[in-house]
Write a structure and sequence with these properties.
The chain is α/β, with parallel strands linked by helices. Helices cover 36% and strands 24% of the residues. The protein is globular.
C-alpha cells in the first residue's frame, strides 16, 4: 500500500462498514468527547448558490487524533429527482504526516450517522417502552431513521406521511419487507403522529409540518430536516412545550430555525435549551424526569460525527480489505 496510500470507499461499502447499532454507540462517544473538550469543531462554512436554496458546505473537525472534513452540496429539491439531497465526500487524514488516508462517500455516511444521532437521542430521552413511531417524510432519512429507532426501542407500529403519495407507498412496501412491522401510510401529518411515542421529522420543508397541538403527552420528537436559521419543521408550540436538547448549543443558536424562530417571537429564550447530547451521555444534565413530558432533539449534524464515522470506516476497511487504493501523491520524489 506504500504506492497507493489513499483509500476510496464507495456508497455500498459504507453501508457494510458502518452498521447502525455500532454507529449509535460511536456517535455517543464522539459527542461525549466533544463535550469534554477533546475536539476542535468550528461552525460549518456554507456558501449559498444563486438559487438561494441550494448550498455548498465545508465541515472540518479534529477529534482526538482523527482529522477530517466533509465537503458536500445540499440541494433540497433533489427529493423530486434520482439524486440525494446531500452529495459529496469525507476526507480523512492521518495526524503524523498529514496524509490523505481515505476519501469516503458522504451521502451514505450522512444518512447513517444522522439517523444514529437521532437514535442516540431517542435512547436517552424517550420512554423505554416506546413502540409507536411516526415518520414525517419518506426519503432516505426516513429509511435510516426507521432502522435507528428499531435499534433503540421496541418499535411495533409505524405511521408514515409524505406529501408524495408515491413515496409513501414505496416506503410502506420497503419497510414491511425489511422489518416485518405494521406500517401504514397516512394522508395527513396529524393522522401520522396521533398516538405516537416517537416522532421523526425528516422532510425538506421550510415551514412547519408538525404542530405542537398534535404531539401526544410523553412523546419524543427528533427534528432533523431543517438546518438553516430561516427554515423549520416544527411550529412554535411544539418547541415551547418540549424539553429541548441539541447536538451543540453554538450550532443551534446559529443555524436551528426550529429554535431561533420561536426565540425571535419571544416564546422561548436561550435557557430553553436544556443541554447537549454529549452532556446527556456524560450525565451532566438530566433528561426526561416524567413519562408525560414531551422531549425534543433538534438535530443539525456535526463534523465530529462525520470524522468519527470515517475513522471507524477506515479501520474496518483496513481489517476487511474493503475499498479501492489509489495513488494521489504526497510523497517526495526519491533523489
Amino acid at each position: 500500500m506504500a504506492d497507493a496510500p489513499t483509500l476510496i470507499v464507495p456508497h455500498a461499502e459504507v453501508e457494510r462498514l458502518l452498521p447502525m447499532a455500532e454507529c449509535i454507540d460511536v456517535m455517543g462517544e464522539a459527542l461525549a468527547a466533544a463535550t469534554r473538550g477533546e475536539a476542535l469543531l468550528p461552525l460549518r462554512q456554507v456558501l449559498r448558490l444563486p438559487s438561494g436554496r441550494d448550498a455548498f458546505a465545508l465541515m472540518p473537525a479534529i477529534l482526538g487524533s482523527a482529522i477530517g472534513a466533509k465537503v458536500i452540496t445540499v440541494f433540497p429539491g433533489n427529493d423530486a429527482t434520482p439524486y440525494e439531497s446531500h452529495i459529496g465526500v469525507i476526507l480523512y487524514f492521518d495526524d503524523t504526516h498529514g496524509r490523505l488516508l481515505a476519501i469516503i462517500d458522504a451521502s451514505s455516511v450522512t444518512a447513517i450517522r444522522t439517523a444514529a444521532v437521532s437514535g442516540l437521542a431517542t435512547r436517552l430521552l424517550s420512554n423505554p417502552g416506546a413502540s409507536r413511531l411516526a415518520l414525517l417524510g419518506a426519503g432516505v432519512q426516513a429509511m435510516t431513521h426507521l432502522e435507528a429507532m428499531c435499534a433503540v426501542r421496541p418499535i411495533q407500529q409505524v405511521a408514515i406521511w409524505s406529501r408524495s403519495t408515491d413515496r409513501r407507498a414505496h416506503f410502506v412496501t420497503w419497510a414491511r419487507q425489511r422489518f416485518a412491522l405494521e406500517v401504514v401510510a397516512c394522508d395527513t401529518a396529524a393522522d401520522a403522529v396521533r398516538g405516537a411515542d416517537v416522532i421523526c421529522t425528516v422532510t425538506a420543508s421550510r415551514s412547519p409540518v408538525l404542530q405542537g397541538a398534535w404531539v401526544p403527552p410523553g412523546a419524543h420528537v427528533n427534528a432533523v430536516g431543517a438546518s438553516i436559521a430561516s427554515a423549520r419543521e416544527l411550529d412554535t408550540e411544539a418547541v415551547e412545550q418540549s424539553l429541548l436538547f441539541v447536538d451543540r448549543r453554538e450550532s443551534a443558536m446559529s443555524e436551528a430555525g426550529d429554535f431561533l424562530i420561536p426565540r425571535d417571537e419571544g416564546a422561548v429564550d436561550n435557557a430553553h435549551i436544556r443541554g447537549e447530547l454529549g452532556e446527556l451521555v456524560l450525565g451532566r444534565v438530566a433528561g426526561r424526569t416524567d413519562p408525560a413530558q414531551r422531549t425534543l432533539f433538534k438535530s443539525l449534524g456535526l463534523a465530529v460525527e462525520d470524522v468519527a464515522s470515517a475513522r471507524l470506516i477506515y479501520e474496518r476497511a483496513l481489517a476487511t480489505g474493503a475499498g479501492t487504493w489509489i495513488e494521489l501523491g504526497g510523497l517526495r520524489p526519491v533523489p
